[in-house]
């Protein structure tokens, strides 16, 4: 079953303002998804061109539809954005990353991303490679499970979840999304209090497992400097994150480029910093109340953006 419910591009007006303010541009979109941002960028002016990446093979037919709508203006690579360094094209005027998963992925039960629908516990962005969530859960060492659930999922009751997963090995329960939901829910029960009380018991564990098996933070760490190197002077890089750990990586990378302390314990003397870029978002931009109402999946979005000032990049970046 494939429920083509579409994917509403998040904070679209803000992204257009940042990347094609004059209706022109040569844009690198690292996360094509349903092509929502790419299509809107291409529609901003007849001379806009986009080079896009997506690791998910199901993005290929969607990219072909956009190519047909905007002939000769979109190149698409069915690849992980961690491979941007190998891209021949350069001198982009804009770079966009809209991280995480798309509604296409979440709403296709066979992909295993959603804890609300029955499906195989897969969760790979690119099912052509790597190990599925089911294989990870059956075989990972306990410290790997802990990293996924405690550090990436930020599940406060991670110990109970890890123990329950280890105990469920060999029962078949870890091979489906609903089996996994049952294991998690039995381990921690409904959330009663605290800021996460509205969350489904499986939300954080699913998120951590997905981030771990797709090595999402590692790929982001690799892609940011590679994509920044492909920006022309004056070009703008915008990143939409949905998770605090992703946002921290982007924030620190941008602050380093802007010659600012990366965090409050950063003791590097100011004279040792070089500003090679300008922060366009001192604080991250967040979606308007109207957008969150119309598209609840936008609620945790944060946009950060930077403008490249010079070809020089400090060593630490
Ligand atoms: C939130 S969606 C992007 C939606 C898109 N901006 C739109 O408007 O339709 C994120 C997309 O990025 C892709 N993605 C996530 N991590 C990736 C990576 N490391 N390399 C390539 N694609 C990735 C996912 O497969 C997904 O399609």
Explain what the structure shows.
The chain folds into two domains: 12-104 and 216-308, Vaccinia Virus protein VP39 (Rossmann fold, 3-Layer(aba) Sandwich); 127-213, Orthogonal Bundle (DNA polymerase, domain 1). It is globular, with a radius of gyration of 20 Å. The chain has 317 residues and is of the alpha/beta class. The longest helix is centred in the last third of the chain and has 14 residues, at 216-229. It has helices spanning 12-19, 36-43, 59-69, 103-106, 133-139, 142-152, 158-168, 177-188, 203-213, 216-229, 244-257, 289-294; strands at residues 26-29, 49-53, 74-77, 92-98, 231-241, 277-279, 302-308. Helix content is 37%, strand content 13%. The protein binds S-adenosylmethionine (SAM). S-adenosylmethionine binds next to helix 2.
Short note summarizing the structure:
Helices cover 37% and strands 13% of the residues. It is an alpha/beta fold and 317 residues long. 44% of the residues are buried.
Characteristic key phrases:
317 residues; alpha/beta; Rossmann fold; DNA polymerase, domain 1; 2 domains; seven-stranded mixed β-sheet; 12 helices; 37% helix; globular; disordered N terminus; binds S-adenosylmethionine
How many beta-strand segments? Answer: 7
Give me the number of helical elements. Answer: 12
> Beta-strand level of the residues, as a percent range?
5-15%
**Dominant shape:** globular
CATH fold-level topology of the largest domain: Rossmann fold
Biggest sheet architecture: 7 strands, mixed
Span from first to last CA? 44 Å
Q: Catalogue the unreliable spans.
A: 1-5
- The CATH superfamily of the largest domain turns out to be Vaccinia Virus protein VP39
Please, what is the oligomeric state?
single chain
Strand order of the largest sheet: 3-2-1-4-5-7-6
Could you say which small molecules are bound to this protein? Answer: S-adenosylmethionine
Q: How many domains in all?
A: 2
């Amino acid at each position: 079953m494939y429920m083509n419910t579409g994917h509403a591009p998040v904070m679209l007006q803000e992204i257009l303002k940042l990347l094609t303010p004059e209706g022109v541009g040569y844009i690198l979109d690292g996360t094509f998804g349903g092509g929502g941002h790419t299509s809107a960028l291409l529609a901003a002016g007849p001379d806009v061109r986009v080079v896009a990446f997506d690791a998910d093979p199901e993005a290929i037919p969607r990219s072909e539809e956009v190519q047909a709508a905007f002939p000769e203006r979109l190149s698409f690579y069915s690849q992980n954005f961690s491979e941007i360094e190998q891209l021949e094209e350069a001198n982009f005027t804009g770079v966009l990353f809209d991280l995480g998963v798309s509604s296409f992925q979440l709403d296709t039960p066979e992909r295993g991303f959603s804890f609300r629908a029955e499906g195989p516990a897969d969760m790979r962005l690119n099912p052509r490679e790597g190990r599925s969530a089911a294989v990870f859960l059956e075989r990972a060492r306990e410290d790997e499970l802990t990293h996924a659930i405690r550090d990436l999922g930020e599940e406060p009751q991670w110990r109970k979840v890890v123990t329950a997963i280890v105990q469920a090995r060999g029962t078949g329960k870890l091979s489906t999304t609903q089996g996994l939901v049952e294991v998690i829910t039995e381990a921690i029960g409904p959330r009663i209090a605290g800021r996460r009380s509205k969350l489904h018991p499986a939300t954080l564990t699913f998120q951590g497992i997905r981030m771990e098996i797709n090595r999402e933070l590692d790929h982001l760490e690799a892609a940011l400097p590679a994509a920044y190197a492909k920006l022309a002077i004056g070009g703008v890089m915008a990143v939409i994150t949905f998770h605090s750990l992703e946002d921290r990586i982007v924030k620190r990378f941008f602050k380093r480029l802007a010659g600012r302390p990366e965090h409050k314990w950063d003791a590097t003397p100011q004279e040792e910093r070089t500003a090679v870029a300008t922060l366009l978002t001192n604080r991250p931009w967040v979606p308007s109340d109207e957008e969150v109402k119309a598209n609840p999946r936008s609620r945790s979005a944060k946009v950060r953006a930077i403008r490249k000032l010079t070809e020089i990049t400090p060593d630490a970046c």
